[in-house]
Every structure is written in C-alpha cells, then in structure tokens.
Fold each of these.
Amino acid sequence: MRLAKYLAHAGVASRRAAEVIIAEGRVTVGGEVMTDPARDVGDEDTITVYGRPLGAHAETRVVYALNKPAGVVSTAKDTHGRRTVVDLVKAPGRLYPVGRLDADTTGLILLTDDGALAHKLTHPSFEVPKVYRAKVRHPPVRQAALRSLREGVKLEDGTTSPARVRQIGPAELELTIHEGRKRQVRRMCEAVGHRVESLERVAFGSLRLGDLPRGQHRQLSPAEVQRLRAD
C-alpha cells in the first residue's frame, strides 16, 4: 500500500494531509526519512510520524476543546509567567495548542498531542475555516466596509483572502477566514474603519464552541476528531 494511504488508514490524517506531512520529512520508514508518498509499505515496516511509532501515535492521540478566557496566552509555556491554555487543561501527557488566539481573544482553541492533526488544521494549504464573532466600534458597519472584507483587505503583510462576513447587529460581525495571520481579524476590521472591542472564535473547522463555559474544556469524541481530519 502507498505510504500516504497507509497513514490515512491508520488514522494519522487524511490522505491529502498525509502527503504534506511526508513531503516535509516528518515520516520515517525503517529509520530512513521518507518524502515519497507513493512508497509501498506494509505492516512489517517500522514507521514513525513526528518521531513516534505509528502504533503509539494512534494509542495516545487526544484532542481537547477549550473555551479560552481573555488574558490567557495560547502557548505551552510563557516566559513572563502568564497563565497559558495548557495550564487550563489538566490532562496526562504533553499537549500543545493548535494555532493561536491573541491574549485578548476568547473562544474555541484546540489542544492535542497529535502533531499530524495540528499540522493539518493549521497549514495554509488546507484552508481550514475559522469563524469569529467581533464587536466593533463606530457602528453601523456599512455596505462598503462589508464589501471590502468580503473581497480582501490590503494589510501591511499583503492582501487578505476573501472572507465570509455576516452582519449580526449594527456593531457585531461574524467573519469566516482560513488564513492564520497575526491578529488578522482585528487588523481587517480596523482597516475598514471599525476597531474591534471584543473578539471570540466560535468555530474551528467542523467543530463549534457551543455552550462550553468560559475557561472550561472537554475531550473530543472519536467521531469529532475524525470529522476534523476530514475538514
């Protein structure tokens, strides 16, 4: 069986995501880094993904959803002693946040020990959507501003990809983006004349925040994890 298909069947990632992981040199076969997704492999081969044996990878995989409060940073450790998202999820093993939310931004963030899944969810090539609710200053948000957000906003690091934008109220927007630039939603809104007062992420791929209380977390079910792999 081809290596990418083998990893997909083992539950590491979708076939497309597995091809990217392989091409980046994250997979070894028999101790040798393998960058060819079409390489034939079988159960007799010793395969590692992100340095872990394939069997161990499947056994230890966990994913948590956290409703991040404001003031908590989205890193595993913080040199300034601030509280981190990892501090809020008391779980065995070593967890890492999947992407980041600004310290002032609240809402859905994922934590996992599964490097392959984290890569798939954050790599720009997979265009996994993220949905935010923004309360902005200087309402109402007029059609010209909404049109600019939907078509792409020119920022100092380049023009953004088109966003899906829904106006919830005179001062509240729901924006769906698939890029992951630093403070992107805040900068987009400011560029069209509406500085963000509060920002919450309410969905990541197929997963929605729902009624998870602020500061609380829950472990995702196997079905939820599988849907994220298919995003």
Amino acid sequence: MRIIHAIARLNVGGAALSVLELAAEQQRRGHEVLVVAGTVPPGEESLEHLTEELEVPYRHLPTLQRELSPIADTRTVAAFRSLLRAQRVDVLHTHTSKAGATGRVAALLAGRGRPRAVVHQFHGHVLAEYFDPARERLYRLVERTLARSSGALVAVSAEVRDDLVRLGIAPPEKIHVIAYGFDLDRRLATPPGARSATRERLGAGEDTFVIGWAGRLTQIKRPLDLVRVAAAVDGAMLLLAGDGELRADVEQLATELGTADRVVLLGYVDGVAELYAAFDSFLLTSANEGTPVVAIEALAAGVPVVATDAGGTRTVVDDGETGFLAPVGDVTSLTAAVERLRDDPALREAFGSEGRRRMRERFSTARMADETDALYRELLER
C-alpha cells in the first residue's frame, strides 16, 4: 500500500511518537509510507529527529500549523491536494484536528488524486471543556461534517470513542478503537547503574522518595496539583521533565508552599529512560487524556502510577493492580495514594512488575500495525 500519514506537528508527545512508530513498522512490512507534518511552535520540543533514527520518509509542510489562519490553512489544503495528486496514495491517514481538517478537505478536492481510503485518528480531542462554548460548537460542526467524508475514524481508547459518540461526531460503528503501540524495550533501555547515577546527579538521596512527571506544563495537565501533592508528602522530591506556559506558576506555588527545594524543574529532557529508572512513583494529574503515553512508559519501566481518572487513563492504569486512580482535582486522594506507595516498597515492586508485563502486552507496535492494516484493507475492499 501507498500511505500518507499527516499530523499537525511532530512535537514531543504520544500522538507524534505513535505516528512515527506506526509509519516505521508499516515501512518494515513493505508499504510505501510518507509522514507529512507542520511546524513545531516556539516553546515545544520536536521529534523530527526520530524520522531519521527510524528511517521514516518525512516531508515538512511549513504552512501546517496548530492555530487557525485562513491564509496558511488555505495554502496547506492546496499543498496537500498537490501532494495527493502527485503521489496517488491508497490511504490518507490524518492525525490531530488541523491536519485532519486540511488533509480531508484536500482529499475531497483532489479529483483523480483522491485516496482510495481516508482515515482520521483522534489521539484525544478538544471538543469539550477545552475552549469557549462558541469555538467548541464550531469545532464539533467541522468534525461532524468531515466525519461523513471519512472512510473510518480511529480513537486511541474506548473512552475517546465514547466521547465522540456522545458529542455526535459519528455513530459508534464508524469509530474503530486502536490503542497506541511503541517499541518500549528500545525507548526504555538503560545502562547498568542508571538509577543510582541519575538520582545522584539530580540530588536525590538513597532514601528519598522520588515522584516523577513528564509532559507540557499547560492547564489541561493541572501541574499545580503536582506541586500540592508533593508538598503534602513528607520526604518526597518531585522531578518534572518538560516545560510550558505554567512553569512560572509552578515555581511560584512551590515557593509559597515551602517546597521549592523539593520540586525540581528539569525542562525538556532528551531521552527519558534514565529518568524513569530514577523514579519511585509516577504522578499524573491531568484534567483530560487521550491515552497517557508517559503513564505507559512509566509502567513499562516498572514504576507504579498514581493518576487522575481522566479520559483514556483507565486504559493504561489498572486501579489497585498497577497503580491508583483518583478523581480529577482530588489532591487529598492523590496524596493518600502516593503516601501508600511511599510506605510500602513491596507494593511498589508488585505494581511495577505487573505494569511492566501488561504494557508490553497491550501497547506493542506490532499489534497496533496489525489492527491498522486490517482497517485499511477493510476500507480498500469496499
């Protein structure tokens, strides 16, 4: 098959990583694959270097950007249309809202270059409780309209699918759940002694209970709750890998709560395997998640996870078996769960061991590629 994957930007995160992993696996299986992505905005780190490491053909489309822009978006549609006419692909597989909108409009306008199958994938969504009501209504209308022109929609979790059905985007029979897949062994490989060396470098003593987190410091991630929990857990150090517009707010709250010396902001970290090795638990406080890749990675590294029961998090964290779940914003429950892990090393070991096993079963690249290829073939045979 000839396949184009289109995504708004290859920024650090689960969506971009899964697209590149899928494209690489499809190429290994003999398909002709091209990844098209737009511009990573200032303040966000890029995964474009992975296209070379994974040997995935890649084309940068500068006009494809996250923000609305009539001029840039029109040029993006035109560029996609030209690409489709030139490539004559079997499958156009779009990811994220902007690439999904411009790519699918281009497919409709491509004439003889229209792909034989069009698939759009939701790695989460911003259709509720994200923007103001007027913008949300507009985005829902756009997605409903484009869904009718799509051969199939893909959701990364059952929770995301159920949200899309509830919001009237498409009927359930049109939405296929295909969970993420990653080469976890490759991503999490560490040299001998990585745990002690990383902890020493970051100032964590042998007996320090280290709480880890990774992601973007944005409102949807509720990073201030991370600080509140860390402040309430005696003897804990919080290591934050990532950056974002709320960094100053995080630093200010840590100072106000008297925990600035126990909250360490690392900024963007290139390669997180050694960090996961240094963590005793992982904390996720998000208000919404499609499928939290950082939780997958933490569990795959043997680190138990305490998380809010948001979006597709339940798909990853098995409450009471590989970690604990709590309601969004419930700092008291999150704190109690982290303290339970702190006080019970045997429980941490049991959760971590089970998490390591389950993540490799649920989130393999081969399984993701199998299910995606099966969907493509179903569409192409119609």
Amino acid sequence: MSRDWAVEKFNVGVTYDTDIDKACKIVKKVGQELKADPELGAGIIEPLKMQGVQALGDFAIQLRMKMMTQPGDVQYMARRRALALIKKAFDANGINFAYPTVQVAGGGSGGSNDVANAAVAQKGLELVKPKVAG
C-alpha cells in the first residue's frame, strides 16, 4: 500500500478486428465519466487511460489500462466501476471482448476424411449440448 496514491493497472482482451484508436477514445471517455462520478471522483487522482497494446495473444489483443487513485477501498471500487463502464461502452460501440474458441476444419478435399471430421465435430457438439427435458 502507498501513503498518498495507488496505481491501478489491468488488461482487457479484445478481438483482433478491434479498432485500437476507437477503443482508446472510449476508454478516455470512461475515465472522464469516472472522474465526474460524485462517489468516486474525489478519490481519482489521474483518470483512467489506455496505455496501449500490452500483448498480442493467441486469441486476443490485450489492452493495458491504468488510473491513479487514493489508496484503500477507492482504488478497488474505481477498478470495478471502470470495468463495468468499459463493458457497457464497448458493447454499445461494437467492440468485442475476446475469448478462446475452438475451430474444427477439414482438409477441404470433399472425401471420406471430411465426412469423418464432420461426424466427430457433430458428436462433440452433442456431448456439450444441454439436454432438454421433454
């Protein structure tokens, strides 16, 4: 803990088709909204801002964000509120959060191997699909 200030840093994973400049502008607006919040604003020393791309992962671009607050509960409340506001703002602006997916693809030859691959994929879907009581 710090006596005078705390820097809260976190990453958010977005899809590879994300417009990074647009995301940066949205995060800046969220930071201004947080700073104007009557409950949290006084505890925010430097508003939320996006530092840039932290990493290029297997399925996501990791965007690094930070803000400076007074130490203690305000830093954790501000982080939680920031994440909620980012989620709403990104959803409203068509920016998608990334999550791992599995892609099943065949060789494309149209032969029996493609049929077998499709059968395996279908069986996998049946195993994870919830059963409907009827």
